[in-house]
Design a protein that fits this description.
There is one protein chain. It is built from four helices and four strands; from the N terminus they run ββαααβαβ. Strand 3, helix 4 and strand 4 form a beta-alpha-beta unit. The protein has a domain of about 90 residues. It has a two-stranded antiparallel sheet with strand order 1-2. The termini are far apart. The longest helix has 20 residues. By secondary structure, it is of the alpha+beta class.
């Protein structure tokens, strides 16, 4: 917000704070929270990571819209990943309408895929990577396991 008084441009305190944060490579608070204090964006410690995440999120959604459904979804790229997983459950329930499946009875399950057939990507760009579509459900990528390791038998 810019104020002009007698032809002189004066910055509001919010705009000055936003510019100061960007100068310090921090994400401005008004990029992250609305005026009530509710979180409206993802949290990143530095501005460059926030902008890279914004570009990757845009890429995933724009590619999905322009082309077709991706084979694997970058789950951390969704603002509401729980909503996405619920929609996957709804789609599976609808595909089994003849068997009268109930949405509440559908259980979510995660299977770690064979490393030779997985997508190693921490963003939305998966072009040139070929994997088979799952028989049911969806593949996701971009999840990290910190402080532990996975020992698949």
């Amino acid at each position: 917000m810019v104020l002009a008084i007698d032809g002189q441009i004066i910055m509001s305190p919010e705009l000055a704070e936003c510019i100061k944060a960007m100068y310090d490579m921090r994400v401005p608070a008004n990029f992250l929270y609305d005026p009530s204090g509710a979180e409206i964006s993802w949290l990143n410690p530095v501005l460059s990571a926030w902008l890279a995440s914004l570009q990757n999120r845009h890429y995933q959604l724009a590619t999905w819209l322009a082309k077709d459904r991706p084979i694997s979804y970058w789950l951390t790229g969704f603002f509401n990943p729980q909503g996405f997983l619920t929609s996957v459950r709804q789609e599976i329930t609808r595909s089994h309408r003849a068997e009268n499946w109930a949405l509440d009875a559908v259980e979510q399950r995660a299977e770690v895929a064979d490393p030779r057939n997985t997508i190693i990507a921490d963003d939305a760009r998966i072009e040139g990577k070929t994997i088979a579509e799952p028989s049911e459900g969806c593949w996701i990528h971009g999840l990290l396991l910190e402080g532990a390791s996975w020992n698949k038998p």
